[in-house]
Write a structure and sequence with these properties.
By secondary structure, the protein is of the alpha/beta class. The chain has 2 domains: 139 residues, Rossmann fold, CATH 3.40.50; 122 residues, Nitrogenase molybdenum iron protein domain (Rossmann fold, 3-Layer(aba) Sandwich). Helices cover 37% and strands 20% of the residues. The chain has 11 helices and 14 strands. It has a 5-stranded parallel sheet with strand order 5-4-3-6-7, with helices on both faces. α5 runs antiparallel to α6.
């Protein structure tokens, strides 16, 4: 099989048997993309957090979680391509895998980075035409998205005990900006800063968005926060549509339009789910 050299989003060059036939994906959103590129028969294994598409992932070998991989299982597969991500995977594990196998690493903070990744994975896997179709559709859908006319101060929470949010160097931040929200945690030093109740009160957000993942916020958590911030609008949101940067982005703009309408119509202190 012929070899080809590719450059990943960290600027690393990797040599791949082309086209690859034994792919291991370590990133849920990129796993879904691989399936949407019609590569089902080329995907050898994935993580336990790779849950989409549900009808197909159940037939694939599981090689641990994104942060704690079963390296021996991956080695037994002898993949000719591993798809990883700088943020979602553990550096030491990826470096160990890269000593033996070609590992392509994405690094994504913005929509443009995500679209570049989609196009690159299409090139890596000999599915350029389909990848470009997905990329063009996502770009077109986002081009039609109109942000809120009145920007509102927002806190997007991904975790509880402690509360954690996202700063300006995250993909979530880019999505918030596209909705038309001002991320009140944008200037925090940590990518995913811990936020105390006292800090939340001081930030005095117009709206608090409670993500469905990685922490599964629900109605009781909305009421918990409403006691702390009685003047803030509190809304449960689909975290996958804010943080998954693969082909799931095809659905994000329509969801964001509905979210924007919902925010505009909601009264203060209205806890709700979208």
């Amino acid at each position: 099989m012929a070899k080809r050299t590719f450059t990943d989003q960290l600027g690393r060059e990797i040599e791949v048997s082309y086209p690859p036939t034994k792919i291991v994906s370590l990133v849920p959103s990129q796993t879904e993309l691989l399936f949407d590129l019609n590569l089902n028969d080329k995907i050898s294994a994935l993580t336990k957090f790779c849950i989409h598409p549900e009808s197909l992932v159940v037939y694939k070998e599981i090689i641990g979680g994104t942060k704690k991989l079963h390296l021996d299982k991956i080695a037994s597969i002898a993949p000719d391509l591993i798809i990883a991500n700088k943020e979602e995977n553990t550096r030491s594990e990826i470096e160990e895998l890269a000593l033996k196998f070609p590992v392509w690493i994405s690094d994504i903070q913005t929509l443009d980075h995500a679209l570049e990744m989609i196009r690159s994975i299409g090139e890596l896997t000999n599915t350029e035409e389909k990848a470009c179709q997905i990329e063009d559709s996502i770009r077109s859908n986002f081009d039609e998205l109109r942000p809120l006319q009145k920007s509102l101060g927002a806190v997007y929470l991904i975790w509880r005990k402690p509360y954690m949010s996202a700063n300006s160097k995250t993909f979530i931040h880019d999505m918030l900006v596209r909705v038309g929200l001002t991320n009140l945690c944008a200037d925090e030093a940590e990518r995913y800063p811990e936020i105390s109740e006292e800090q939340l009160v001081a930030l005095n957000p117009d709206i608090i968005l409670l993500s469905s993942e990685p922490f599964p916020f629900d109605e009781k958590h909305m009421h918990e926060l409403a006691r702390i911030l009685p003047e803030s609008r509190i809304c449960l949101v689909d975290g996958e549509l804010f943080s998954w940067y693969g082909s799931r982005l095809l659905h994000s703009p329509d969801y964001f339009k509905k979210l924007g309408q919902h925010i505009s119509e909601a009264a203060n202190n209205h806890a709700s789910r979208l």
